[in-house]
Amino acid sequence: MTEGAIKVASYNIRKAVGRDRRRDPARILDVLNTLDADVVVLQEADKRLGQRPAALPPRMISDHTDFVPAPLATNAVSIGWHGNAVLVKRGIEVTGCTRIDLPFFEPRGAVAVEIEDRFRVVGVHLGLLRRHRHGQLRQLRSILTERNIPTAILGDFNEWSRLEGMEELGSDFHLHMPGPSYPTVRPTGALDRVALTHDIEVREKGVHMTELTRIASDHLPVWVKLTLPDGAVRPAVSAVG
Fold first, then answer.
1. N or C, which end of the chain is more exposed by having fewer CB within 10 Å?
2. Which CATH class is domain 6-227?
């Protein structure tokens, strides 16, 4: 971690199924290790059927990365909730976790993780229809603005328009699109986005495009490097040799 900054990323891992139709969690973990992020928000981190077992087995995460899943799951086999998970680098303290129900017919949810009581990271995977996304964003904004803390919302917003669709976040957040991230074969849609409260400064942002990320999922990871209002959270302590 750079002094005074924190790097956060978002990645729709498609349940670890790549463009070659192979489910390969080790390949996703290799991508995570190259992101050099302090916090990573994942979408489609759990499978959809049954108890929703993790697409990234926790033991593999522990053995092969510097990350720890935030305690968001409601059972012993998932790492997230409604497919949304948050991985935090070892040495950064998680001080709170919240699961947020989002409205409309297709079951959706969001997750919120507080870092050291001073920064909140929210993971989302919004619905396919814009009218549903509007309601989900209204719900999210209503809940998040109840607590005044620097907040970053990251995830797959499923919005193709660069000018419309995010109005429900209102004046409380400003939107950043690091770049086209979908589909990996020829990225044209900036579906993966970041919304920030106005007390957070963006230092850098980008899309992580490599030979590996172009095949590991149908989305590319996006990232932002942020400065919090009173400095970054404590640097993480690397635990991977």
1. C
2. alpha beta
